[in-house]
Amino acid sequence: AGAPMFWFSGPLTEALGNDVVLVLSLLAYVARFLNYAWMKHPYHALPAEALRGITFAMFWSSGSMYAHNISPPGMKATMLLTMNAMYGGLGQSLGAIIGGKLQTNFGTAKTFIYSGIFDFCFVGALVMYLLTRSDRAFT
Question: Is the pLDDT confidence value at 32 over 80?
């Protein structure tokens, strides 16, 4: 699901704007987390795995376009490198450490529920921030 979504993510981002695509991708992560939390059979993971391609492709393409758009002249590669380091280095490392601690203390299902709730609250805060910007894509 990821490869086709990367193909369509450019036109989708141009049509909806970086802000909207970012919010949609984060909301899809909420759906994935809750799906994992409430699944009763291994086959129930298939919708979440199908969403993985969509969520990552939408997030990564909109993030890359945003980093490209805000970078100073001659610094586009540096901005993309910084974004990659934050996502792949800091984000995944902290996610593994915090997620592991939550899973040990609360169990797998509750960890996914808490992750979904946290992500939903983060999306709410992000939307509030995006609505205050003068160059927003939200109306």
Answer: yes
